[in-house]
């Protein structure tokens, strides 16, 4: 059964004004619009018959009045015309459709049906029009009719209510994933949750005073983008955006993100001006899972003082009481709480919670510390206080006992081993990388040579430190092995005109100078090879004689003995603590690896380390 | 290299699994009893080593390569003095791995 007016139905009727018999009448379904009684009659009704495109004045048969009175057929309902005649109205160009036989197809409809796809605005207007049109009859109609109209209005409202989401989806509310946005496509709508809301800040620049605030938005896929609003837009949207709520946003503009200021991983950032559309999404269920990228505690060393924020997950072992720290810059006191967490890398670290996190989450953790809860924290800054320390920032998120597979893994590890294990703080490993117990620290941040050589951008900002275990594979005998150094300050001396050596920094000349090693060695490990710069202290241990001595051998005992000495140093495995930096040389960026400390490989300790690493492989 | 009869790395625990097979292990010499040497394996079990070349001093470590002829006894073919500086924990770890998940690397 058709539930829509027949397309071109009116045209057909107009074409065939007087069908011979009912059988000649094709199936025509029309919508009853503008239904009203003629005068005071309760039996004669007039309406506009609509097929979606055209309308014609029409009249219902008197015997059909009962259908209207009973409410079976209401305004905006559908009828199937079974028999009719088309009369010409005297003095009018219009025709009148006299429906002689018909049946109800649909008693009512949400609105007048038109054949084009409507925009919501139009539909709304339509609905308003319809309502208004309905309102008119309700005033004119007799009380009996009022009940009919009221129920029609009710039904229309209901139907409208039901149709609304469908209507909304059918318009430009096609939600685009955040990852597809770019500055060259303007017509988008996104559905996002506010995962971070900044404060409304006031600034002063050459143009005067301004307001700015930004929000971090996350969509269903987990993609994030930062949106900024200035002045009027800032004031307009600041109260509108609420942390945690979901919004439909459109008509924002995109541009490439300023890497210096960006806090989220996105090449673009969004700006919303007063023309932007922000609409709260009702009852939204999607909660983009906080995407974590956990770093094991024993790997934190390489992030120290990096700008990158990291995530951790661990078992809470200890919660301190709240401390009040006074901020030097503005004398403001901020609450702080330190918690100690441990993970299955068998290391512990201290996390400092600031402000709200200290007071609220901190208190919660203190209350439940006996249960050794799992805590997952996103966006922590890695500092070097006491070796390694973690600190929350304004956008940090703390979850207690989260529903993540890592949390479960930690729980089982802790219950079986962790609880009893005595774990060292990762900080103590880092405190003195050049400590007397040099061998101990050779095991933190252990990497293979390929890790260093394969990444040319390592150390471009600040030097990065690693430990390596490598064999000396080549010492070139024909390189500059040493420099002449001042006996007092070890700085390079230049040959003075009147024999002797002149030290620039000491400001004096000396007959004697010492030789200090400065050389490059080639080292190899199972993953590759690299050139290391080595200075006096370490070179002496490698070659096993001082630079002065080596020079003496070279000059007095001959080149063979000299080469022999170098050969003896080769193919000996050493543990090195190295720093990697990037510098420019002749316009090209070069990686420079410098040895900071050296130790011979102790087979027992190294074996222990290897066994640990092998065990990690199989997990 | 003669790979016809591969020698298995064993400790006290694993010795009984390779009865009649060629094995190698390191023990710390505890005492000399006539023709046999009693040694402590890397997992603290007492093993008896029968055979020649028993010149390893007490308290030193000795590597034994021979045939396992009892759950705690080896008929030694070669004995080597490994000195007094030996890390039993690492060797024990080696035995476990060589017979466990990395068996195919060794046999």
UniProtKB/TrEMBL annotation, chain A:
- Provide the alphabetized UniProt keywords: DNA damage, DNA recombination, DNA repair, DNA replication, DNA-binding, Metal-binding, Nucleus, Zinc, Zinc-finger
- Ranges for domain Replication factor A C-terminal: 465-610
Q: Does the keyword Transcription regulation apply?
A: no
Q: Which domain of life is it from?
A: Eukaryota
Q: Does the keyword Cell membrane apply?
A: no
Task: Please list where the region (Disordered) is annotated.
Answer: 1-22
Outline what the protein does. Component of the replication protein A complex (RPA) required for DNA recombination, repair and replication. The activity of RPA is mediated by single-stranded DNA binding and protein interactions. Probably involved in repair of double-strand DNA breaks (DSBs) induced by genotoxic stresses.
> Assembly state and interactors?
Heterotrimer of RPA1, RPA2 and RPA3 (canonical replication protein A complex).
This protein is called Replication protein A subunit
What lineage, starting at the top, does this entry show?
Eukaryota, Viridiplantae, Streptophyta, Embryophyta, Tracheophyta
TrEMBL record, chain B:
Which CDD domains does the entry mention? RPA3
- Stated name of the protein: Replication factor A protein 3
Question: Known Pfam families for this protein?
Answer: Rep_fac-A_3 (PF08661)
Q: Which UniProt keywords apply?
A: Nucleus
Q: What GO molecular function annotations does the UniProt record carry, in alphabetical order?
A: DNA binding
Please provide, in alphabetical order, the Gene Ontology terms of the cellular component aspect for this entry: nuclear lumen
Q: Any keyword Nucleus?
A: yes
Family as reported in the entry's similarity comment = Belongs to the replication factor A protein 3 family.
Q: Where in the cell is it found?
A: Nucleus
Q: Does the keyword Nucleotide-binding apply?
A: no
Give GO terms for biological process: DNA recombination; DNA repair; DNA replication
């Amino acid at each position: 059964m058709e539930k829509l007016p027949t397309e071109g139905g009116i045209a057909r009727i107009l074409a065939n004004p007087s069908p011979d018999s009912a059988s000649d009448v094709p199936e025509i379904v029309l919508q009853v619009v503008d239904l009203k009684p003629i005068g005071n009659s309760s039996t004669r009704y007039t309406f506009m018959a609509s097929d979606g495109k055209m309308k014609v004045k029409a009249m219902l048969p008197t015997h059909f009045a009962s259908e209207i009175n009973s409410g079976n057929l209401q305004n905006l309902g559908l009828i199937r015309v079974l028999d009719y005649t088309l009369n010409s109205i005297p003095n009018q160009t219009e025709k009148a459709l006299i429906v002689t036989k018909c049946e109800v197809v649909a008693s009512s409809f949400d609105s007048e049906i038109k054949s084009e796809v409507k925009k919501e605005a139009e539909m709304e207007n339509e609905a308003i029009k319809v309502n208004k049109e309905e309102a008119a009859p309700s005033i004119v109609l007799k009380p009996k009719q009022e009940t009919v109209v009221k129920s029609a209005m009710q039904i229309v409202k209901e139907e409208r209510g039901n149709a609304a989401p469908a209507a909304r989806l059918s318009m430009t509310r096609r939600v685009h994933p955040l990852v597809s946005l770019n500055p060259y496509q303007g017509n988008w709508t996104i559905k996002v949750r506010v995962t971070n809301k900044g404060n409304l800040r006031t600034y002063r620049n050459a143009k005067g005073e301004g307001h700015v605030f930004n929000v971090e938005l996350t969509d269903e896929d987990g993609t994030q983008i930062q949106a900024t609003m200035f002045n009027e837009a800032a004031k307009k949207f600041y109260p509108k955006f609420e942390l945690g709520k979901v919004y439909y946003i459109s008509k924002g503009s995109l541009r490439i993100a300023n890497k210096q200021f960006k806090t989220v991983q996105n090449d673009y950032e969004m700006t919303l001006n007063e023309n932007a559309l922000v609409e709260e999404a009702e009852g939204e269920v999607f909660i983009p899972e906080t995407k974590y990228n956990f770093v094991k505690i024993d790997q934190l060393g390489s992030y120290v003082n990096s700008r990158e924020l990291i995530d951790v997950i661990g078992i809470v072992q200890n919660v301190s009481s709240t401390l009040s720290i006074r901020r030097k810059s503005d004398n403001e006191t901020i609450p702080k709480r330190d918690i100690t967490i441990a993970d299955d890398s068998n290391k512990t670290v201290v996390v400092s919670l600031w402000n709200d996190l200290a007071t609220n989450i901190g208190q919660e953790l203190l209350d439940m510390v006996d249960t050794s809860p799992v805590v997952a924290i996103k966006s922590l800054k890695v500092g070097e206080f006491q070796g390694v320390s973690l600190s929350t920032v304004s956008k940090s998120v703390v979850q207690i006992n989260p529903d993540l597979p890592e949390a479960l893994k930690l729980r089982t590890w802790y219950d079986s081993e962790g609880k009893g294990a005595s774990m060292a703080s990762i900080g103590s490993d880092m405190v003195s990388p050049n400590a007397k117990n040099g061998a101990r620290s050779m095991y933190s941040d252990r990497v293979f040579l390929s890790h260093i050589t394969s990444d040319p951008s390592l150390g471009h900002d600040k030097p990065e430190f690693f430990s390596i275990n490598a064999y000396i594979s080549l010492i070139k005998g024909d390189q500059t092995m040493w420099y002449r150094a001042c006996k007092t300050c070890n700085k390079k001396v230049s040959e003075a005109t009147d024999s002797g050596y002149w030290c620039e920094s000491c400001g004096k000349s000396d007959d004697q100078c010492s030789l200090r090693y400065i050389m490059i060695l080639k080292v190899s490990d199972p993953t590759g090879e690299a050139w290391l710069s080595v200075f006096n202290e370490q070179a002496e241990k490698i070659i096993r004689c001082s630079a002065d001595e080596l020079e003496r051998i070279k000059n007095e005992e001959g080149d063979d003995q000299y080469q022999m000495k170098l050969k003896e140093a080769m193919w000996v495995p050493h543990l090195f603590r190295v720093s990697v930096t990037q510098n420019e040389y002749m316009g090209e960026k070069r990686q420079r690896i410098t040895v900071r400390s050296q130790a011979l490989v102790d087979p027992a300790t190294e074996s222990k380390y290897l066994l640990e690493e092998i065990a990690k492989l199989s997990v | 290299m003669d790979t016809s009869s591969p020698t298995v790395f064993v400790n006290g625990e694993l010795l009984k699994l390779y009865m009649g097979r060629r094995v190698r292990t390191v023990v710390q010499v505890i005492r000399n009893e006539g023709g046999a040497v009693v040694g402590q394996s890397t997992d603290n079990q007492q093993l008896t080593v029968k055979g020649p070349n028993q010149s390893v001093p007490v308290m030193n470590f000795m590597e034994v390569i021979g045939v396992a002829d009892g759950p705690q006894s080896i008929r030694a073919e070669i004995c080597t003095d490994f000195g007094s500086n030996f890390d039993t924990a690492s060797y024990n770890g080696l035995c476990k791995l060589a017979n466990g998940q990395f068996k195919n690397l060794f046999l």
